[in-house]
Amino acid sequence: MRLPFLACLCPYLSLCHSPVLSSTSSQDILQYVNPLIGTSGPSPNSNGGMIPSVAPPFAMTRWTAQTRENFISQCPYSHDDAYIHGFQATHQPAIWMGESGQVVLVPGIGEVKAGFAERGRRMLAERSQAHLYEVEVEGLAVVGGDHLMEDLHSPVPGGAQEVPEEVTEGANGRVRRDERGGPGARDHSHGDGELRLGPNDAAPDCEKSKHDAPGSNYDTSDRATRTNSTLKVAMTASSHAGHLRVDFPQHDGVLTAAGGTLNPHVFIQATRQNWTGYINIDPVNRELCGSNPQRQDYALGPHRAPNFSAYFVSRFSEPFLSYGIAHGSNLTATQAQGTGEHLGAYVTFSASASRVEVRTGVSFVSIAQARRNLDIEAPSSLNFDTAVQNLEEAWVEKLSRVTIKGADITSAAHSQLTIFYTALFNALQYPSDFSEPLESVVDGLRTWYEGYTDSVRTGDDSYYQSWSIWDTFRAEHSLLTIFAPERVNSMMRSLLKIYGYSGRLPMWANVVETNIMIGTHVDAVIANALERGFTGFDVGKAWEAVKKNAFEPPEQDEELLYYDREGYTPMEVRAGLTGYMEKGYVANDQWAEAGSRTLDYAFDDYAAAVVASHAGEIETAAFLFERSKNYRHLFKNATGFMQSRNANGSWANATYGWTEGDAWIYTFNVMHDVDGLASLFGSREAMKMKLDEYFSTGQNDHTNEPSHHAPYLYSALGWPYLTANLTRQIASENYNATPSGLSGNEDLGQMSGWYVFSALGFYPLNPASGDHPKWVQTLVHLVDADFSVMCASGTIPFTRQRPHLAKLCVDNWNHIFSSLYKSYRPLTFSPAMDITSFISTKRQALLIADHAAYRSQLSRQILALRKRLGRTTPKREKFSKKPITAADVKSNHEFLHLVALLSERSWAHAMAMKATHEGGLKGSTRKEVLSKLVKATRGAEEVVKLVKEVGAETKDVLEARAYAASMRGSEAFERQAGGEKKEGQEGKRSWEGCVKAWSEARVIYAALLAKEGKGVYRDLLGDTVDPTLKYAAYQAGLSRSVAVSTVARKYFPKEDGNVVKAVESVDQWAFKDKPVAETNGDTKMEDVVEAPSSVQWRGRKANIVDSSIGQALAGVAAAEARLRSYLAEHPSASSRDKAAAYDDVLIASQDAADAAKHATDELEKERVDEGDSRMQDLRVTSLAVNYDLVSWRVGRNRVLIGDRDGLDFPAHVQKQAKRTRKDGTPYPVQPEPRSRKLARLRERVVLYDSTIQSIESVKDLRGAMRDETFVAELDAKSAYFRALKCLNIATSHSLLGNHLNALALLKRAQDHTQSISGQGSSTADETNAPSTLDLTLTKTSTLTSHIASKLSRTHALVELRKLEEDSASAGGKNTASAAPLIHNLKAYPTLGTQVDLRNLVVYPPTLQPVPLKPLFLDVAWNYVDYPGGQNVAKKEGTSEKMEVDAVKEKKEPEKKKGWFGFGR
After folding, report:
1. 3-state secondary structure at position 1383
2. Cα torsion for 471, 475, 478, 483, to the nearest 10°?
3. How far is CA 310 from the centre of its chain?
4. What are the distances in angstroms from CA 848 to CA 313, 639, 836, 843, 845?
5. How far apart are CA 650 and CA 576, in angstroms?
6. Dihedral over alpha carbons 963, 969, 972, 973 (to 10 degrees)
7. Are the beta carbons of 1324 and 1294 closer than 8 angstroms?
8. Contact call for residues 1146 and 1193 (beta carbons, < 8 A)
9. DSSP letter at 1022?
10. Distances (CA, A) of 425 to 62, 396, 484, 1111
11. Could you give the C-alpha distances from 1404 to 960, 1274, 1306, 1312, 1437, in angstroms and in order?
């Protein structure tokens, strides 16, 4: 068994070779924790998103200094700020999530200032530790900091956003976070560009002085009067209670400059603006209590948690001198109770109060529970020092589980011990335990609020929230199984509680589900726990929940994009699962972030298979394990990258479909099947080369989670030393011991989890498995075992000069090995040799380089491979060729690859020489080229021999023969192209050898393609084999009308019966025509579609002069038959499904058009005259097949538009809600909103535009304009769809009540109908027949009459509105007695009041563009303007114009791009 992650990896706790070493012990371990790391950065994505909080591990509430108001994208503390505005109890788990029920305590002296922007106090000194936060601030408040408030900056209420700009084109995904300076770029500055390490570069920023931030807007004009008025605040906490100690200055009656006293006070802010809270002051018991319902993520996900609120009770050590309530900045003295928004309260103390302690209990259940939390965790008998000691012991117990020996000490900014222990500190904060104690005993009864059903629950277990699973499944949860194993089972039970409450496992839970990020990686969290032996939860229920993730799509899966932060959506889970289960991938043109979803869902399938196996569902596990290979559907052989696909199978734009990454990193996002991924590249070496390019070109972005596993792929591939080097480099560039010490957002422990694992020397590459060891270079006190590590030198621990392990000694190894690897599944390489994929992967280099560069690349690869296989010649020794035997290949397939590479290099050498002689090869040069090709052929034949001798699979033998045949064909081609003739042969017969060789390759590759469907075979046939065979056949005198497949079957060398049998075993139709359809297993030979020999076009018959055209037309006929069959069998199918059925006939029609163009180009190259009958037939054929292609495109558009080509606009039937009210009654079916109706009309008009554009493109075809009758027919068809377009835009205006514009558009539609009068065939509409461009008289006459009636009705509405307005105007001016409207109806239409239809609207309308989700690949993309936006000037190039006096509308401000203008 190979140990992929332990083998040569080693900890990098010693990154520098300083002779000064250090070790840790439990007594002094907290000195290495610096909570200020990751608190600085100029933008949300360029800092760690951390706060210097105090709280125990996994606490519900964390307490921090407040320097700014937090919201989504801003934390309550930033090291860049110089003023403190209070001390906050926060429940914001990450910078990109919202706060929930915060409470802020603000101590001070002098006049009470309640508003955030008027209560800032300058920091003078600050010290942050895991168990204690201390700060010294000026006692008097100053005005400033309004630029740090929520109401000025929080971009979107409730956390939801509009469709981001990145999603407008199809369904593209989120962009990468780090766009500042390339991957890995970071900013360690603090606004002034200086890196601050504190006085004398001591322990970095754990104890330091603070100064005003550059550009500060705080008023410090009276600083001289405040220099002696300082407060010293110390803060510690338990899980549900904060404990503040405030030391006030003694002033002996000193007055402020304004004449006020300097009495101490504490202000407590309950709510901010727009949130209604409650507060009450109890001076007798020295208590202040209240509630805050704010939940900033309220618009995300399906659960509203309507009764959510955080409750607090603050208890003071000193009696109150006075008190009052605050609403905003307005104070009301002596008032003891208040409700409302922007709510707070204050209490003051006597001037003699030098120290005040404030204990604050926090609860999500009730004020009574907050008081109970306070009584249990911070009673009056608990002094502050004891509270500090309790928190200290809680962290020491966790952090002392790992002891480090031999760490280098270089500088405070790069202290490895500080970075490591702070990372471990960060990793042990989440998920948060939201359960609250009902009893003072440790394992007593607990209660908690859960927002899914808006209920309070009770039980004897914890309830964990704050699940950032897309981030943390990679390493954080594996880390918890090592450093917090006592909590893992309870965490799994919490996940199942959430499943019970909501019906789904969480994705990103923050009080309730928010639907942030993608995938159901919770499957991996559960699999991870099971694989590591944690079974203290209901495994059957866990499988039930995971199975639902794997097989049940979310609600409205085919209706919603499910883009990032789409508001008010159902549980997202695996959005796009409908298409994923059907096609094996998520379609880019139907769902957002489709590429990332496909790859993540493949991994989730693997994780689900693991859970299924633990639940005893072996068959389902096997199915899911096989489905976990769906990542293969996105691998594009031509580029060597993963790429999203559209619903019809075509490739989407390469930049589309990625979640916080790009095609580079997602190409390697196959953590569960590294060898399967390597096989797509062709070999491990090929994948290693791709990784080399990834890292060497700066593509790795460690600031974001998708890249975290990338350096460990080297180890899995067999190059662990590269992993060791890279992890050291990444650690040194992305982590340090300063406030800027995290290059990216912490994301609930994942950034730090990566560092902890990597520092220990291993990493869970596949986080759904249990395949990593737990101890390297450290003493982890979890089991009884002793470890010692010896470095390469044997004396000094790991340095940059000696970075790798030389020896690992472990006592009782057998016991530990069995426990660590009991469920380890070793990576195994596929037994298939994949010769074709291997060679094709190598030839991808020709896409960006010439044959000479390719040859040089092959030489380097051959040398590296020889070294790896031990086949190099030692220095100063004579070269001696050692043949490669079958035994060598059996031991290692790379020996076969070596032979193939040598053959490939000879071929590349020949092609490179040929390319340098553009004038043709002559004499010795030509002989040299032929000798290289002969050498290449011999090498390829050697591959065939070796494959046979080792008893390889039939597929491998056939691939080897096809490769050898292509080499023989290349040699024969070069001989004949140069005029060489074999003895006894003359003229065209000499090409037969070339034809036979390429025929063999063609038949084999076609058979393999038919069986496996791999793109590599299709690419070889289309790019190389077919064009070469076709040319050789033509030179051999064969007619162009003979199909390539027919030529290949005829000239295939059938002398070797074994080869024929092998080919037929792969594809029974390899040597005969395949029937179009089979029914009940019986082949219907009469259904075979023969290639036509001619085409008919408008009464003219044209012969098909090229076989490829005939084959393509046969394919069109077969596809049309399948389409007709589908439409007949599924008359009630949705328009989307019917349109998808057109894909095959469209693809076949495009192939026919391409074949016609290619044949025409060949004749033009041969300079065939236009008068030649072949050229004339080709021109007619080209016009016919291109018209048919346009006709099928238009037909699919008409299907998508709907019945009667969109003549009607029926109401969309809304789905009945699946859930019911609390009383059991169903929710009423809501009518379709107007915005949804307008969106449907927009989609229609896009389709009309595409149709009109397609029709107009026919006129550009050669020969089309010569037929005047044909052009007139096209104009009539174009007018038909233009009329429909005007009709539907008029409907949108009518929906908005703008009947005047609707009338103008209907008049334009009527004008268009005059052009189609009498047009169309007299044939009756055929039921369920495929739609095309053809029109019938029934349709054109129906449209004409419908528009006429619609025009009359709208005309009447406009007249009535005009009469009503005139009547109201007359009555308002008292100039006449306005007659009832009905009295004027007899005058309709009144002379002189006729509506002038020439001057109403700009046509086409040019209002605000609305981006639409693309419906299919070949729609010409257009933005269509609709009512509701600003009237603007007509665009350049518009062919139709109508003048209008536009009403000026207020210009809307430019919206931010994406989510807050940032990446996430």
Report:
1. helix
2. -100
3. 34
4. 68, 10, 20, 10, 6
5. 17
6. -130
7. no
8. yes
9. I
10. 13, 10, 12, 68
11. 61, 21, 12, 14, 12
Residue 586 near residue 580, CB atoms below 8 Å: yes
Phi/psi zone of residue 1437: left (φ > 0), alpha (ψ -120 to 50 degrees), beta? left
Gap between the Cα atoms of 1093 and 1102, Å rounded = 9
pLDDT for residue 636:
93
1056 neighbors 1063 (Cβ within 8 angstroms): no
Q: What percent of the chain has pLDDT over 70?
A: 76
3-state helix, strand, coil in the chain (%, to 5): 45, 15, 45
Q: Whole-angstrom Cα distance, residue 947 to residue 939?
A: 13
CA-CA distance, 584 to 603, in Å (whole number)? Answer: 13
Please give the structure tokens belonging to residue 500: 């019970």
Confidence at 780, pLDDT banded by 50, 70, 90: very low
Helices (H), 1075-1204: 1107-1129, 1135-1140, 1143-1165, 1173-1201
Burial of 19 (0-12, 13-18, 19+ CB in 10 A): exposed
How far from each other are the two terminal CA atoms of the chain, in whole angstroms?
Answer: 42
Strand segments (E) across 317-421: 322-327, 330-333, 337-341, 343-348, 355-363, 402-408
Q: Which of 814, 957, 740 is nearest to 186 (CA)?
A: 740
Tokens standing for residue 319:
């009696």
Instruction: List, in sequence order, every residue forming a beta bridge with 266; answer none if it has no partner.
Output: 107, 347
The whole-angstrom separation of Cα 79 and Cα 138 is 17
Whole-prediction pTM: 0.59
Phi, psi of 887 (to 5 degrees): -65, -35
Alpha-carbon distance of 496 to 534, in angstroms, equals 14
283 has a pLDDT exceeding 90:
yes
Per DSSP, the residues of 722-777 read HHHHHHHHHHHHHB-SSTT-BSS--TTTHHHHHHHHHHHT---SSTTS----S-SS
Phi, psi of 200 (to 5 degrees): 60, 25
DSSP reduced 3-state for 360: strand
Residue whose pair of structure tokens reads 């390759």 in the numeric block: 1001
Q: Which residues of 53-71 are buried (b: 16+ CB within 10 A; e: fewer)?
A: bbbbbbbbbbbbbbbbbbb
* Angle between helices 1337-1373 and 1268-1295 in degrees, nearest 10: 40
Distance of CA 347 to the CA centre of its chain: 50
**How confident is residue 786, by pLDDT bands cut at 50, 70 and 90?**
very low
536-569 in b/e form (b: 16+ CB < 10 A) is ebebeebbebbbbbbeebbbebeebbbbbbbbeb
Q: Report strand pairing: 264-269 vs 230-237.
A: unpaired
- Record the tokens describing residue 793, joined without a space: 């030198």
Question: Tokens 């041969």 label which residue?
Answer: 1166
Q: Helix (H) and strand (E) counts for the chain?
A: 38, 37
Rounded to 5°, the CA angle 515-520-524 comes to: 140
Both tokens assigned to 873: 């010649």
Query: Taking Cα atoms as reference points, which of 657, 932, 697, 675 lies closest to residue 829?
Result: 675
Alpha-carbon gap, residue 854 to 844, rounded angstroms = 9
Place of tokens 């390489």: 829
- Which residue do the tokens 């991870």 mark? 528
Q: Measure the CA–CA gap between 644 and 663, rounded to whole angstroms.
A: 9
| DSSP 8-state class, residue 1021 | I
Please tell me the number of Cα atoms within 13 Å of 266 on its side-chain side: 32
The whole-angstrom separation of Cα 968 and Cα 949 is 21
If DSSP states are collapsed to H, E and C, what string results for 49-97?
A: CCCCCECCCCCCCEEEEECCCCECCECCCCCCCCEECEEEEECCCCCCC
Instruction: Copy the structure tokens of residue 463.
Output: 């309830």
- Report pLDDT digits (tens) over 948-1003: 888 888 888 898 999 999 999 888 888 887 655 544 444 455 788 888 888 889 89
Count of all residues that appear for the chain in the document: 1464
